[in-house]
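Milestone M4 deliverable, item 7.
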Amino acid sequence: MSSLTCGFIGLGLIGGSIAKAIRNNIPEAQLIAYDINTASLALALEEKVINQGFDSIGEVFGNCDYIFLCAPVSHNDENLLLLKKYLSKDTILTDVGSVKTGIHKHIEALGLTEQFIGGHPMAGSERFGYQNSKASLLENAYYILTPSDTVPQEKVSAYQTLARSIGAIPLILTYAEHDYVTAAISHLPHVIAASLVNLVKNADSREGVMKMIAAGGFKDITRIASSSPTMWQQICLTNTENITGLLRDYIDNLNKIADCLDERRADDIYDFFDTARNYRESFINASSGPIKAEHVLTIDIADKPGSIATIAALLAEHDVSIKNIGINHNRELAEGALRIEFYGKDALMAATEILRKNAYSIHTK
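Output delivered:
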């Protein structure tokens, strides 16, 4: 890939992370980017991630081997119309959206199916913008490709090779399969988490007792309810049919277990939990899906002044950054009094080693 040239339409969290991963793994690549945020372009140039930055889409993008559509989905239509004037037939055109049907339909309408391969790197962060992008975001993450029916196989193979070269795991699906799968394992869980939080909010006492003791299992299964409401509004409006179909199936299952409880059918209640437990324990223990794992440890500490500060200072001395730290008041499903969250797996592993060497008792998930 010595002559690789990639264009980025939008250079936010995902676009920036892909660009950084390419720069790290294919340093000789030529990377160009368009973004309305000139500060992002300036920072990417300063960091030598991109070779050129532009505040408009022009003919320079006609020389690209790949063009990544990384701007907000609502801008894809206008950006594609501008790009089409300059697009080479040899360019692989792709996107990074979490719903694929809409972009594929638009590509069909524009007559660009022979060079379009939908892309969805299944990685993300609660942070956004180029300033929070990092090459490691894509490492060992599934990178789903949804080729158009008429795109040549050699283009698909080339894209798979590129995805592997930046540390991702390419997986081929049709766009319909992609949207159904992500509805089940990403979109519906966000709806459920938000509905459960709202249920507790509405059921709580005036004194807020439920909120006060909400921790352990409840916080684990509702963590994703903290995600961007704007993003999830748009996902729900673009993958509606899949989400509502699965949501109705989920409601049917809830009604069935409610019947089991009302009728005190002990065997069925046991099977309900046992089946879920067995299937859950067969999951791959990796952060390669759309709902990212937390990097958390809990630690036993003495209840005396300075205990937390001592631990924070110890980790700081070893350049380990802490994302969040706090007392775990509800330890129904978690051991350890102090909960520490880190930005990544490497930081978690380093902290675990440091604290154990200093005779602290550590509990990890």
